[in-house]
Design brief:
The complex is a heterodimer of chains A (801) and B (211).
Chain A lengths: L2 H10 L2 E2 L5 H6 L8 H7 L1 H14 L3 E3 L7 H5 L7 H16 L3 E6 L14 H17 L4 E7 L2 H12 L6 E5 L13 H10 L4 E5 L4 H11 L7 E4 L6 E3 L2 E3 L4 H5 L2 H7 L1 E4 L7 H11 L14 E3 L4 E3 L7 E7 L5 H8 L4 H12 L4 E5 L7 H12 L5 E4 L3 H10 L5 E5 L3 H13 L3 E4 L11 H16 L8 E4 L11 H16 L2 E3 L12 H15 L3 E4 L6 H11 L7 H15 L10 H11 L2 H13 L4 H21 L5 H24 L10 E6 L7 H12 L3 E4 L6 H10 L4 E5 L3 H4 L1 H11 L6 E5 L5 H7 L3 E2 L3 H11 L2
Parallel strand pairs in A: 1-10, 2-3, 3-4, 4-5, 5-6, 6-7, 7-10, 13-14, 13-20, 14-15, 15-16, 16-17, 17-18, 18-19, 21-22, 21-23, 23-24, 24-25
Antiparallel strand pairs in A: 8-9, 11-12
Helix pairs in contact in A: 3-4, 3-6, 4-6, 4-13, 6-7, 7-8, 16-17, 17-18, 19-20, 20-21, 21-22, 24-25, 24-26, 24-27, 25-27, 26-27, 27-28, 28-33, 29-31
Chain B lengths: L5 E3 L8 H7 L11 H17 L3 E12 L3 E4 L4 E3 L1 H6 L3 E10 L3 H11 L3 H32 L2 E3 L15 H9 L7 E2 L5 E2 L3 E10 L1 E2 L1
Antiparallel strand pairs in B: 1-2, 2-3, 2-5, 3-4, 5-9, 6-9, 7-8
Helix pairs in contact in B: 1-5, 2-5, 4-5
The chains are: A alpha/beta (801), B alpha+beta (211).
């Protein structure tokens, strides 16, 4: 069957697949723990009976029972050397059972994970599937199904294996959990975008859920689908009953979802775990009354990664392609890349995502490094985040990156240069990537708008031959610097307007080029951006953290109608405005002394120094500020903590604010210090020997310091001898000991016993940590147990009164 | 599922902020937080997540002998614990798992702590713990799905050395079986895993009859 014949069939009727195989085989005596594929070949009548029953029930397509017949799965049973024979024979069996029905070779997970999640290279998995595909082709299958996939990268490997082996139709289903994610984190829309761009003939979901949940997934993806959709649900949600898993949805209830599934846009349906020929019979009967709903769009302007996607287009919100992952002009990044490291790349990705970039441009072009190797490392690292724009002048680098990129990328860029048209364009097409069309040719950049338009038309004409549509490209306005040619901006703006309004494609530009060599470049960039948005620009390669860039983008979306009902703008900026009007704890019209109190209460470190200075200027003494504002405020924080209205981070923030306040007041308090004032009590703290956990001890130390104690922190994994010596040297009033493990808490009494033996009779011991409690403190002779940092402060205050 | 240790190099953990807040002790019904504090903690959570590199591994081993206080595995190792033996009463095999988020988050938390940035240290610490837990949870989710195909399932609970009567000395057994050095984990003299944001677990594998 050809792909076009398959597509024609899908316009005529809702195609019915088979139902569950595994549960039917168990019913027919397949024992647990065997290789199902081998058992089927040893008991062919069971499989023939099942598939004939599905055909009789109305299945148009049956799947060859080759689910686990890839090399990696067969190896588990010592059967890898029989791979070709097993797949060929299974296909033959299904062919025999299916009669004049269609037989699709079944590819399923290998059970291994592709690097970087697992340790198997992507290309090895492609080859594993190719080997299986070749054997199934020998068995004369009509097409392929890639099913129950949990990882987009493995799904891509299987799809590539089929596409590189034959021209037969291939359909793909993935399995999504209750959060509508695959095991490795892909959502249905991202997966659809990736796989339909790569040439899957239909996409959908199977297993994990019943028809009701699957209906919701189908509704979610239908608006983005350019290909037919598939649903192969379980017969309900599995339930445990008397120690057995039961699928309790009867055939009637199962089939009752068919009209809704059809209305949601399902073109192919069948059953997964727990379904029987009777489920399929009822399903087929109901489907016969429904008309197949074709895809609602022919092309989709969108890019994706393993776990996210971005819709592009002139009616969609403006997309900023983050430009930071590019070594040009970045010495620190260059040095890191030369060492083969990617920590800065990771940081740039995180920062740009936080600054609301929609896509990340990745460029590893740097002399002295292996660009391809570093690009592959970067793509592997970033493939699960925002969609990527693969940026290189080398077609080899672009093709290698596209092969392993677990999504639909944007290629930067393809021009009318011979090498780009002959090498980069077919590579981009093979992997279904969108691309940036650069209006330049081997002869250079045309100086006129007309010249650039001709190149746009030429390159697009070539791209159409590979199946590209206008939704799949965006034209680079090719911004030249205005400092060398003041007419440059006008040419770019004219081209943007023509592309956007007449030719009908998205437009993009490398924004900062326009201001090269000029002072205050941000002014020029942002003004140019606003002008270009007005002419139709809907994407820009820029630094999303640049001052005022995102506000211009947000406002532009409002003014061009891309922000429907201004929802995003109001959400972003309305709340901030309301925040200014709403009552806040630290108000400028409060008395400064009240502001000091509130600063501690809200943990406002930044404002407290100023509030204290203004309070002092108002004639209130430092001692009064401490006694009437700081101490009452921190006591109030303690109360809120005790009532669980505050939690530990807030307690620390308040304590930090208080410390800041003291830093301002301390010199003034020193001036008025009397001889009767007591010196600060010293507390020695440590995590006991053998224990490396110190966060609890550190937080207690921080709180104690903020409450005016002098804390000597001896660190973690500290011996009893060292702790006792430290207490002696600093004349400690209290020793605080921390331990988190049962194996290390036993070191606590050692410290206490040694201290007593060394004559530290007046020192108090306070212990804390997850495994100790008051009774343990009593048992080892400690004076107190502190459940948390706040309690350690209170105990210390009590001990040092 | 063969008897070899499988390693994951980059587990796709999705960490809900709520789990971090819960670990930090926030009572979501009682707690009120100004926007600025919320933003700061949210920022630290995002930074913490970026500092974590979740990796992990798993191994399946058959149970060859058992009594009420211990379970003997096919490789000859014995796990001694009455609670574990009870958990594994219906299991014919065990799943040993481990995860770690690497040293980066611990180092960053320590640096923050040393710099007096207590909130940052605390949040990083909580993120590290939760990420390690989520990573091992992810491995269990994956294995659970795989087992389903073979009509098997995991026990609902899992045990870790140090829980109940499963002594911490079992950490050494799991460490050796899973060859956790390959994940960059070492055991100190007190049998604590370093980096500290590392987790090991033992679960049972049971038959699961499907109707």
């Amino acid at each position: 069957m050809t792909r076009s014949e398959f597509q024609k069939l899908l316009t005529e009727k809702i195609v019915i697949l088979d139902g569950a195989t595994g549960t039917e085989l168990v019913k027919r005596g397949m024992p647990q723990g065997v290789c199902p594929e081998l058992w089927i070949l040893e008991n062919p009548s069971a499989m023939i009976e099942i598939q004939q029953a599905y055909r009789a029930a109305g299945s148009d397509i049956v799947f060859v029972p080759s689910f686990g017949a890839n090399r990696l799965k067969l190896e588990e049973f010592g059967l890898a050397d029989r791979l070709a024979e097993i797949n060929r024979s299974l296909a033959g069996l299904s062919r025999c059972a299916a009669g004049d029905g269609l037989v699709f070779g079944d590819l399923a997970p290998t059970g291994k994970f592709i690097a970087p999640l697992g340790d198997i290279p992507f290309e090895d998995v492609v080859n594993v599937y190719k080997e299986q595909v070749a054997a199934l082709l020998e068995g004369n299958v009509d097409g392929f199904v890639i099913e129950t996939m949990m990882d987009i990268q493995e799904t891509r490997a299987a799809l590539l294996a089929v596409k590189e082996s034959c021209e037969l139709p291939v359909i793909v289903t993935m399995t999504f959990d209750e959060h509508r994610r695959t095991l490795t984190g892909s959502d249905p829309v991202s997966a659809l975008i990736t796989l339909q761009a790569m040439g899957a003939d239909a996409f959908g979901c199977n297993c994990s859920t019943g028809p009701g949940d699957m209906l919701e997934i189908i509704k979610q993806i239908k608006p983005f689908a350019t290909i037919p959709l598939i649903a192969k649900p379980n017969a309900g949600i599995p339930k445990l009953s008397a120690g057995k898993t039961v699928f309790d949805m009867c055939p009637e209830s199962f089939a009752a979802y068919v009209p809704e599934l059809a209305a949601a846009g399902i073109n192919i349906m069948g059953g997964c775990c727990g379904s029987t020929p009777e489920h399929i019979r009822k399903m087929a009967a109901n489907a016969a009354c429904c008309k197949p709903l074709p895809p609602v769009i022919r092309a989709l302007s969108a890019v994706s990664s393993a776990g996210s996607y971005c819709l592009l287009g002139r009616d969609k919100p403006f997309a900023v392609v983050g430009e930071r992952i590019n070594p040009t002009g970045k010495k620190a990044l260059q040095a890191e890349l030369r060492e083969g490291k990617l920590a800065m790349v990771n940081n740039f990705a995180r920062e740009q995502a936080a600054a609301r970039a929609a896509i990340l441009d990745v460029n590893m072009g740097l002399s002295g490094i292996d660009e391809k190797e570093m690009m592959l490392k970067a793509v592997a690292m970033l493939g699960g985040g925002l969609p990527l724009c693969i940026d290189s002048t080398s077609s080899e680098v672009i093709e290698a990156a596209l092969r392993i990129y677990p999504g639909r990328a944007l290629v930067n860029s393809i021009s009318a240069e011979k090498s780009r048209l002959e090498k980069t364009l077919p590579a981009a097409a093979k992997y279904g990537a969108m691309f940036i069309l650069l209006p330049l040719a081997d002869e250079g950049i045309p100086e006129t708008v007309e010249g650039r338009r001709e190149i746009v038309k030429k390159v697009f004409g070539e791209a159409e031959k590979y199946g590209y549509s206008k939704a799949d490209i965006c034209v680079d306005g090719l911004v030249m610097t205005v400092s060398s040619n003041q007419n440059a901006a006008a040419i770019t703006l004219d081209l943007i307007e023509w592309c956007s309004r007449e030719f009908g494609v998205s437009t993009i530009c490398g924004l900062s080029n326009v201001s090269f060599g000029m002072p205050r470049r941000g002014h020029v960039n942002n003004t140019f951006l606003a002008m270009a948005v007005g002419r139709g620009l809907n994407m820009a390669i820029a630094n999303p953290s640049a001052e005022m860039l995102m506000p211009v983008v947000d406002a532009g979306n409002v003014l061009t109608g891309r922000d429907f009902k201004m929802k995003r703008y109001v959400e972003k900026y309305g709340a901030a405005e309301q925040g200014g009007k709403a009552p806040v704890v630290v108000k400028s019209d409060d008395h400064p002394a009240q502001q000091v109190f509130n600063c501690v209460l809200t943990g406002d470190e930044e404002s407290i120094a100023d509030a204290i200075k203004r309070t002092l200027a108002g004639g209130i003494t430092a001692k009064d500020i401490v006694d009437r504002n700081l101490i009452p405020a921190i006591n109030r924080v303690g109360e809120l903590f005790d009532r669980k209205e505050y939690f530990l981070p807030q307690l620390i923030m308040s304590a930090d604010a208080m410390r800041k306040g003291f830093e301002v007041l301390e010199p003034l308090l020193e001036e008025h210090k009397s001889e009767n004032d007591k010196p600060k009590a010293v507390i020695v703290v440590a995590t006991v020997e053998g224990d490396i956990h110190d966060i609890g001890k550190n937080i207690a130390a921080l709180m104690l310091r903020n409450y005016g104690f002098e804390v000597i922190d001896l660190g973690k994994d500290v011996s009893a001898r060292h702790i006792v010596a430290g207490a002696k040297a600093h004349n400690a009033a209290i020793i605080g000991l921390s331990a988190l493990m049962t194996t290390t808490m036993v070191r606590m009494p050692e410290v206490i016993q040694l201290a007593k033996a060394e004559g530290l009779d007046k020192v108090k011991f306070m212990i804390g940590g997850a495994v100790v409690d008051q009774s343990y403190a009593d048992e080892i002779g400690a004076d107190a147990y502190a459940a948390d940092a706040m309690e350690s402060v209170r105990i210390a205050q009590r001990f040092t009164v | 599922m063969a008897n070899q240790v499988f390693y994951f190099g980059n587990i796709p953990v999705v960490l809900p902020e709520d789990t971090v807040y819960s670990r930090l002790g926030r009572n979501r019904f009682l707690n009120k937080m100004p926007e600025a504090q919320k933003n700061l903690i949210g920022k630290y959570i995002a930074e913490g997540i970026a500092l974590c590199h979740p990796t992990g591994c798993w191994l399946r081993l058959n149970i060859v002998e058992r009594d009420s206080k211990s379970v003997k595995l096919e490789n000859g190792d014995m796990l001694t614990s009455a609670s574990l033996a009870e958990l594994l009463a219906s299991s014919h095999a065990v799943l040993l798992t481990a995860s770690t988020v690497g040293a980066g988050i611990v180092e960053a938390a320590t640096a923050a702590s040393n710099a007096g940035e207590g909130v940052k240290a605390l949040v990083y610490d909580a993120v590290g713990s939760e990420m390690a837990d989520e990573a091992i949870g992810w491995i269990h989710g994956y294995i659970g799905q795989q087992l389903k195909r073979g009509s098997e399932k995991l026990t609902r609970r899992r045990f870790s050395p140090g829980y109940g009567d499963l002594g911490l000395e079992n950490q050494q057994i799991i460490y050796d079986i899973l060859n956790l050095e390959k994940l960059g984990i070492r055991l100190n003299d007190s049998l604590i895993m370093v980096p500290e944001k590392s987790v090991t677990a033992i679960s049972g594998i049971e038959r699961n009859q499907v109707v």
